[in-house]
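ENTRY TYPE: paired fold submission
RECORD: A
CONTENT: sequence, then structure tokens
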Amino acid sequence: MLWSPLWLPLMILALWMDWRWGEPRRFHPLVGFGWLASQLERHLNRFALSPLSIAGGGVALLLLLLPPLLLIAALLTVPVVGELMGVLLLYLCLGGRSLMEHGRAVMEPLAAGELEVARQRVAMIVSRDTAELDESGVCRATLESILENGADAIFATLFWFMVAGPLGAVAHRLVNTLDAMWGYRSDRYRYFGRIAARLDDVMNYLPARLCALSYAVAGAFGAAMHCWRTQASQHDSPNAGVVMAAGAGALRCQLGGPARYRGQWHNRPPFGCGAEPRPGDIECALQQVWQALLLWIGGALFLWVAFWGVPGW
């Protein structure tokens, strides 16, 4: 998208739309895409315990990605319509305001001492079991969600928009959605979701590291870089570990550790440094994401001027 002089104004407009309205409450295209992915998985994942299921997952991924991407690519070539559609698509791919709303929805009952309400609300944004989490556990789950979803729903989306325009942003968001649905190491998805998970890893490799660096600059830089160097490789994901370690270090709080998923305990490596997380750290994390976004906007402005110069000069 750097080849188009309109990419920065389109990006700023889409960010403003996300800040102003947030995600659509009804008829969000990603909800429909997720429903379609679920139906397709039921039909193609017939041999879940066999490596043959990898092929089924690959076919499902192609069937889900190619038709919408080809249609979007054709529509984007239409004058005026293409630009308007590009703004709308990027807006639909972003999740900045939703991230802020979900984070504060957990923080507010915690601050009021309403732990049960906070548990119910954090259950809406994480996949772990939340019914028995204490205050620190709720804070930890919320902070991890903010850091990871900030990387996926904001920074990786903007990265791919700058690289490949609205088509790149949509491709990333669809792949990321499939990874969120199928990228588990359970019996059902171990093979079927493997291609989606690997493609998501590839697409997020550079954005995750740029996001981690942005978190570090927006927070405690030295601690963030130390945690990145010493802790990131302990995570199962090559990208989530980078984001989690740098983000937790920048906040100077402890994340990771034991967590229960679907009734089973998983001992995850610790990330970050300093004290156990507290409710106030949630607002600090949201501010860190916001400051990192401002850094990206400043960097985008620099790139735009470098490519296209200052109008009238």
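RECORD: B
CONTENT: sequence, then structure tokens
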Amino acid sequence: MNDADAYLDLSEKVIRALRRPASTRDILREATLRDLIPPHLHGRTQHKTIGARLSEDILAKRERCRFFRVRPGRFFLRSFIDDPTIPKDFKTPIVARRRSRQLQRECAAYIHADKLPSAYSASDRMRASDFRKLVRLENIEYYSGVHSDPLAIPIYTAAYVKRGSRLLVYRRGSFAESRLGFKGLRTALFASPLAQSDRTLFDLFDHGAVTTSLMALATDLDLYLSPHLPGFEESARLTGAVVFTDPMKSLVGFVEVVPPPDYTPYSRKLSIGGFEWAPISTLTSNINEFDPWTVSIIRHLDSGAIKAS
């Protein structure tokens, strides 16, 4: 048996024993505890090897693969899909969503202005831990379609891709970006509104902010069938949030992602292009070229103000 098959069989044994979706670190930890790792499999980053093997198998076999992703970084077995004792959240494979339709089709998540701490004014940065507290279920309201409450603030999550001291920036086509204050400007973000369906058994802690931003990024950069996806999943972390009032009232949680060293940005979407790894220190001199949310990220990265909480 080759190493690829050995890692796949190891993953199947662990997930079948756990009866729940597992991350690659979960698989490696449980395999170690259960003494399931064959002696010929070794290395300091075996969890990354497991992720690569699983991703390659899913890419090659698609629906015939014994594994599937339920969320970014979480793998499960197709053989459990028909098991009535398994929760529904564990049995639904990821589908790349067209986020432009999301607000029309799903109940979007909002927070009432009265729930925001008085200490935060417009454009003040809050810690990741404070954002998580705000998006707990008791603070969230859901609306489907147009609503009339002027104090209801929509919640977004936005991923940015950082490699050392460089930030991945790009441009969205004018027909793909129609928001006031965003159209025609460059961006570094892959953003999505939070919706009621983003709060799953996997994402109670942050209402799915990290997962949703990863799904947005994977959709735009065609990563769902890429062996690079595990590297993005492994590095994603919530770094903070900002309340914006102009030109678009919103609460935005920011997620930092570090890509694998050999990743080259690419998208088949005609609405996305002009990728550039730009030195963060040089972006402030061209700050007016970027949308307001990206401006916030650039300034904080440039000052070293973003800290994980």
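NOTES ON RECORD B: The chain has a mean pLDDT of 84. The CA atoms of residues 122 and 244 lie 5 Å apart.
STATUS: closed
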